[in-house]
Amino acid sequence: MLFKEIIGQQEVKEKLLKLVRDDRTPHALMLFGPEGTGKLALAVAMAQYLACNNRLEDDSCGVCPSCIKFGKLVHPDLHFVVPVMKTGSMSAPPVSDDYAEAWRAALLADFYLTESHWYDSLGAENKQGIINVKESETIIRKLGFKPYESDYRMVVIWLPEKMNQPAANKLLKLVEEPPEKTVILMASEYTDKILPTILSRTQLLHVPPIAEADIREGLMQLEQADPQMIEDAVLRSNGSISKALQTLHQDEVEAQHFDLFTELMRLSYARDIIQINGWVERVAGIGRERQKQLIDYSLRLLRENFMLHLEHDTLNYMSAKESDFSSRFSPFIHNGNVHALAEAFTLAGNHIEANGNPRIILMDLSIGVIRLLMQEAPVAG
After folding, report:
1. Within 10 Å of residue 68's Cβ, how many Cβ atoms?
2. Model-level pTM greater than 0.90?
């Protein structure tokens, strides 16, 4: 991955390049920010730049033996740690090496890979990935060897917040006192879920949402699409190239989210408990990751409808289909219920994340939505 191939983030790129040029590369660097902003791509580009045999002022050369191996993600001094889970007949605790081929294929296909898409590629269904203590032991052993070809041993830890407590405690010693010429690059979306002692021993670098102009230019380079579709994707991206691409592709998952959300709102308004029960059964069967995605999607559409209700049209980021629905639905989302609705969906998402019973969670959520949609907007004083 070359820096020039990453969409936007010029300021972050300059900071990373300066660290290497000034010979001030930290032994542990945490790139953190929202999903879809290029943190993982930046981490890989940084590692490639460190290993490049013919570094340029502002990028790797892209043609030396080291860069060619990075281009295939097979450089012997580059290691990945990613959240994984048991699949198939696997009995032992899994580590990233068990899915090395799948990981390379997924990342080469999309350097803006999201957690949910990674799990989908593994056929995870209801399972959620973690980074376990066996993974920490494996990476400590690997980094104990001398580099094979480059000056550095490099490990990219994607979503370090997925480390369980034993894994984090085990890795702490490595982060505190890594072997010489070792660089640990982490790409995180939720630093508040990372062990504070690990966080305090890393150099933090925020990766902000991508500017709309950069997303627009990136989409035009990546996709053959109608200009209006690209504008729609840019408006809804919220600084995430992943969301922009998802909008552009209008994939089946997002279409399903829209249908499920609108169905729940209509059934709740009609107070049709029998049909809601059927809705709950269907959603309970789509798997936890998809349920979490549905909750996130619902929270976004609630926000958009509230903005529409307030007549802040310039702050709306919806597709034509969502806008058509919201033109009729937004009067029911107002100051009197929007905060409670957001809290109800957020709580449901937290309970699903904690492996609660989805049928109970979703039915409780549905009953709450019925009650809240019945509330009338407060009269302006």
Report:
1. 12
2. no
